[in-house]
Amino acid sequence: MENHTVMIDNRETITVTDIKEIDSFDEDEVRATLSKGAMIVKGSKLHIQMLDLNEGRAVIVGTIDSLMYVKVREKGEKGFFAKLMK
Q1: Is 38 exposed, middle or buried (0-12, 13-18, 19+ CB in 10 A)?
Q2: What pLDDT, on the 0 to 100 scale, is given for residue 63?
Q3: InterPro entries of this UniProt entry (predicted)?
Q4: What Å distances lie between residue 18 and 4, 28, 38, 60, 83, CA to CA?
Q5: Can you give the C-alpha Rg of the chain in angstroms?
Q6: Is 86 helix (H, G, I), strand (E, B) or coil?
Q7: What is the structure's pLDDT at 72?
Q8: pLDDT digit string (tens) for 31-86?
């Protein structure tokens, strides 16, 4: 298992390790898959300055407003609302 680290410098540069893949990105949001789940970086004028999937490392620059970890649902796992509507 890889170690996962996040380093944010002055809310302008974020360096992340243990990146398995970048799922989507634009100037307002970057979504990435990690070994244990996924993460979403939100902000403005975001750009992926460096991405090395062999090393599992990414550097994102721009104005960073938030970083959120999200659980990736397993196939067949129901979400909160689907469980409520049984």
Answers
A1: middle
A2: 98
A3: Spore_YabP/YqfC, YabP_sf
A4: 5, 22, 10, 14, 32
A5: 14
A6: coil
A7: 75
A8: 999 988 999 999 999 999 999 999 999 999 999 999 999 987 666 555 555 555 55
Between CA 21 and CA 37 the distance in angstroms is: 11
Q: What is the pLDDT of residue 17?
A: 96
Q: Report H helices in the chain.
A: 80-84
Read off the pLDDT band of 11 (50, 70, 90): very high
Q: Centre a 10 Å sphere on the Cβ of residue 73 and count the other Cβ atoms it contains.
A: 9
Count how many residues are written for the chain.
86
